[in-house]
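Lab notebook, bench 4. The sequencing result for the construct came back, and we need a structural model before the next group meeting so we can plan mutations. Quick request posted to the team channel:

Model the 3D structure of this chain.
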Amino acid sequence: MSEADADAEAGGTPGREVWIEKYRPQRLADVAGHEDTVSRLESYIERNDLPHLLFAGPAGVGKTTCAVAIAREIYGDDWRTNFLELNASDERGIDVVRDRIKNFARSSFGGYDYRVIFLDEADSLTDDAQSALRRTMEQFSDNTRFVLSCNYSSKIIDPIQSRCAVFRFSPLADEAVETQVREIAAAEGIEVTDDGVDALVYAADGDMRRAINSLQAAATTGETVDEDAVYTITATARPEEIRTMVDDALDGDFSKARATLDALLTETGMAGGDVIDQIHRSVWEVGLSDREAVRLMERIGEADYRISEGANEQVQLEALLASLALDSSAAE
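Done. Here's the predicted structure in token form:
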């Protein structure tokens, strides 16, 4: 696909497009980081034997891209008229299943054996809506294929899961994210330093959409995208800051660890949940013994649960650091 075509499809003017749409893969073969999944999907298309599909995995790893690419490869230029995309988080009631999906499934069309209905964030559907969807999948199985996308397959009722071929999308490997970032930077004529690429990969944490958005945002701050620009734009702490904070707590220096935490929350503007995530990612990089790592993981889990239940983020994070400092003092 030419850059001009991508520009037109994104609906923007050159240099002002949203890059996640401009560089969205148009074919399954172009989807990065999921070679086994892509190979299986391509075999379905080659045999003209597409089952109902369930894509499960975190955000930004290619679920929607694969669904649209399937439609493009099956229908070619007619894909828009034979592909219905719905977001279940916006339209999660039983009426959506009964009305929009059924009307699309019933409508007449020519030249193809079936149409494709893509239901994004299907785990947001109520149980009643999922039960209605199960019946609809049975009723229109002759001329309709469903592709469901969700973050957690456990929230999809078993009767629907058993009717689908399940594909689990894992977070993208760092190498796949790095390759894509470098290709986009080269296409846009942006200079990205090696440490800038490393920072983008770290901040993305397997989310390609976040990596591309961060690259586009950082590219507006200057001629060169380096790690300073990336960490500022993404409000992400440097890995060494997190490690130093944990080390200080483990060494019993609670005041110093608390000062670092306060800077992350107030100056960097990080959310408590993000700090927890970064501490969790750093557990095995701090050089702890197995016993210390297990103790830290226990504290992280407790703080994460309390924050998710609505507790004060700063209080819980300080309590986490304090417990590490107390454990250190007790060990001495």
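Residues 290-308 form the longest helix (19 residues).
Will bring this to the meeting.
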